Amino acid sequence: MYQVITMYGDNEPWWFFEDWQEDVEEDKTFDCLEEAERYYIKKWQELSSTYEYINTKVNYLAAFWNDGDERWCEECDEDLQQYKGLALLKDNQSVTFESGDDFHERNNDCGKPKCCKSSFA
C-alpha cells in the first residue's frame, strides 16, 4: 500500500522522529504507485503555490513554509519554524526510488531554519 500524507509541525518530513505521525493532518491510501504519485503531484502543486519556501528531496519528500509561521517552544526557549510536510510512502516508510525530474532536490529556502534540539534526544 502507498500513502500520501500531509503533516504540519516543527520538523521537515524526512526526519521521521519517533512521534512524527502525531503531525499527520491527512493520510490518503492507494493500491498502486501511479495513483499515489498523481495525488502527490496534485498536492505538491497546491502547496508550492501557497507557501513561499520549499525544500524537496529526491524520494517524494517535501517541506513548505512561510516566514513568520512559528510557534513558541517552552523547552527550547525560542520560536520554531513550522512546516507543511508532504510525503509519498510505501507501508508508512519513505520510498527508496527517486521521483521525477521536477522534484529532484528543489530548494529555495532562506537558510537553516531553527529546529528544536529536544527532538534529537
TrEMBL record:
UniProt KW keywords: DNA-binding
**A Pfam family reported for this protein in Swiss-Prot or TrEMBL:** DUF1033
**The organism's place on the tree of life at top rank:** Bacteria
Q: Which GO terms describe its molecular function?
A: DNA binding
What name goes with this protein? DNA-binding protein
Q: Give the organism the record lists.
A: Enterococcus termitis
